[in-house]
Structure formats: C-alpha cells, structure tokens
Amino acid sequence: MSAPELGPELEYSEIADEQLNDLEATDVSLYNAVLAACELIGRNPSLAQSMSAAVQTDSGIVFRFPVPDRYPHKVFWSSVGPRIEAVFPYK
User: Fold this and answer.
1) Is position 11 within any domain?
2) Distance (Å, rounded) from C-alpha 76 to C-alpha 55?
3) Do 63 and 78 touch, CB atoms closer than 8 A?
4) What digits encode the pLDDT tens for the residues 3-34?
5) What per-residue confidence (pLDDT) applies to 2?
6) Is position 22 within any domain?
7) Domain assignment of residue 78, yes or no
8) Which of 33, 29, 35 is nearest to 16 (CA)?
9) SS (H, E, C) 46-90
10) What is this structure's pTM?
C-alpha cells in the first residue's frame, strides 16, 4: 500500500512510504497520528514550518515536525513540494 494522497502538492520519499507502510502494519494509532501530522504539513506548510526545528543535511535543510502526543516521533520534511522525507523516533 502506498502512502495516502493528502493533497495535490504533498509528496513522499520512498523511505517515508516504506516507514508509513510499516507503521500501518504494526501500530495503527501511531500511523493515524503521523498521517494527521503529514496532513497539517500538506495543508499549511508555513504553519508546520513555524512548529518545526530545522536540520541542516548534505542535501539542504530538512524540517523536523513533532507528532502531537507521540513523543519522540517526528516527521522529517522538506519545503520543496512539500515532501515527507522520513518518519521515526528522534530525541
């Protein structure tokens, strides 16, 4: 199953797609919380950016958005697109 289409502009990396598939198979509650975070990023990237930390990578800046009520899980995303890059626990 592929990551759901949450908006015409929201894209997913192959890594994020695989991580979401794993979450869906193992923890539906966390999967739904992550999808809600992704939906917010897709609907309002400016708001999501204001709620995110910025991380400098070799590929440029990636934002780290906390999944509400699911510490330490984060959604890593880039503003180009916007695009969901990865989802995993990060302290």
Assistant:
1) no
2) 9
3) yes
4) 554 445 689 999 999 999 999 999 999 999 99
5) 54
6) no
7) yes
8) 35
9) HHHHHCCEEEEECCEEEEEEECCCCCCEEEEEECCCCEEEEEEEC
10) 0.87
Give the Cα separation of 91 and 79 in Å (integer): 22
Token output for 23: 């979450």
Number of neighbours of residue 12 by Cβ within 10 angstroms: 23
What's the order of all strands across the beta sheet hosting 11-12?
11-12, 83-89, 73-78, 60-66, 53-57
Show the domain range for 56: 28-89
How many other CB atoms are there within 10 angstroms of residue 25's CB atom? 10
Per-residue pLDDT band for 39 (boundaries 50, 70, 90) equals very high
How far apart, in Å, are the Cα atoms of 31 and each of 55, 56, 75, 80? 23, 26, 11, 23
Backbone angles phi, psi at 64, to 5 degrees: -115, 105
Residue 8 lies in a domain: no
Question: Which amino acid, residue 26?
Answer: T
Provide the domain count of the chain.
1
